[in-house]
Amino acid sequence: MSTSYKTQIFILVMTLILGCESYRSDSSPTLSQSHDSRMDTVPRVTGIGGIFFKSKNPSEIKNWYADNLGLAVDEFGAPFEFRNAHRPNEINYLNWDAFADSTTYFHPSEKEFIINYRVQNIKGLVKKLKRNGIIPLNEVATYEYGKFVHIIGS
């Protein structure tokens, strides 16, 4: 891999963000008039799912953020809960975490951070990226907590 890449980007799709009707309850509010439901299938970034960075001492920095800024930090970092603007009953999370400088988790990127984006229509987005000459580092992987694909972007 070339070292000219600026950052490694992880694209995250949580199944709830895909607009699956089966995850909505009958008591869910209807979408506002200004929301175009056709937008629910457009391949695009809808938010941030995680911010990860390297640190000389991850435990120390996590403790600093917990002690001074009140972050609820655990072994996986700090989760930030938020509501989906178009489905207020839906709870989502952004994860913040520090990794050791020596981690290989960020490879092949040589940058000190990762931004994990929340997207809708991950397959469509991967097709769009390929059309634009951006080749994913792997195939879309599915886990119980979401779908992921790794790309390098500028």
Based on the model shown, name its key terms.
154 residues; 2,3-Dihydroxybiphenyl 1,2-Dioxygenase, domain 1; flat; 2 helices; disordered N terminus; alpha/beta
Explain how this protein is built.
Helices cover 14% and strands 35% of the residues. It has a single domain (7-19, 33-153), classed as Roll (2,3-Dihydroxybiphenyl 1,2-Dioxygenase, domain 1), CATH 3.10.180. The protein has 154 residues and is an alpha/beta fold. Strand 3 (78-83) and strand 4 (91-100) form a beta hairpin. The radius of gyration is 17 Å and the shape is flat. The protein contains 2 helices and 7 strands, in the order ββαβββαββ. It has a 7-stranded mixed sheet with strand order 3-4-2-5-1-7-6.
Order of helices and strands: EEHEEEHEE
Write down the overall geometry: flat
Overall domain count: 1
Strand order of the largest sheet: 3-4-2-5-1-7-6
Strand fraction: 35-45%
**Strands, count:** 7
Termini Cα gap = 14 Å
Q: In the CATH hierarchy, what is the class?
A: Alpha Beta
Radius of gyration based on Cα positions: 17 Å
Percent of residues in helices: 10-25%
* Mean of all residue-level pLDDT scores: 78
Number of helices: 2
Main sheet properties: 7 strands, mixed
Could you please say which CATH topology applies here?
Answer: 2,3-Dihydroxybiphenyl 1,2-Dioxygenase, domain 1
CATH architecture: Roll
Return residue spans where pLDDT drops below 50 for at least 5 consecutive residues: 1-34
Helix/sheet category: alpha/beta
What's a quick, concise take on this entry?
The chain is α/β, with parallel strands linked by helices and 154 residues long. The chain is built from 2 helices and 7 strands, in the order ββαβββαββ. Strand 3 and strand 4 form a beta hairpin.
